[in-house]
Design a protein that fits this description.
3-stranded mixed beta sheet; Immunoglobulin-like; 5-stranded mixed beta sheet; alpha/beta
Length: about 150
């Protein structure tokens, strides 16, 4: 009888341990989700110089932080304002990395939420330039102009 009781007690302990290990315990914290391989940007960054590019403004940020323009040709920058909070956006271009001096392109009109607007930038020499939204200076990036 004593052997049966010991065997049953051992089986009960092992079964309890197995059950405890197989269940996810509630720690009071949300479960950790595996990181996604998807990019935060809605589209991948291109390193090919272009004469036309679309910048999407959403969540008070641009979808691209690096632009590549073809040297010595006009470039059309289309601002696609996808804001749902009523914020307007625009596009300005500078030679100064702090975007305080050396303004070479200034917007005349803002792009309202739900609108797309083309900003045509004059031909630029090869080099590095800096862009921003005048309304939201935290929305900025770099332009590389190459042949």
């Amino acid at each position: 009888m004593r052997r049966t009781f010991t065997a049953l007690a051992l089986i009960l302990v092992l079964a309890s341990a197995a059950a405890a290990c197989s269940k996810q315990r509630d720690t009071g914290f949300p479960p950790i989700k595996p990181s996604s391989s998807a990019s935060a940007s809605p589209r991948p960054q291109s390193t090919v110089p272009v004469t036309a590019v679309t910048l999407i403004g959403k969540g008070i940020q641009w979808d691209l932080s690096q632009l590549y323009f073809v040297a010595n040709q006009k470039v059309t920058v289309t601002v696609d304002n996808q804001e749902t909070n009523g914020a307007a956006h625009n596009f300005a271009l500078f030679t100064d990395p702090n975007r305080q001096l050396g303004q070479i392109f200034a917007p005349k009109v803002d792009t309202q939420p739900g609108q797309k607007l083309d900003y045509v930038v004059q031909a630029l020499k090869a080099g590095t330039y800096y862009f921003e939204c005048f309304i939201h200076p935290s929305m900025h990036g770099t332009v590389t102009v190459a042949k």
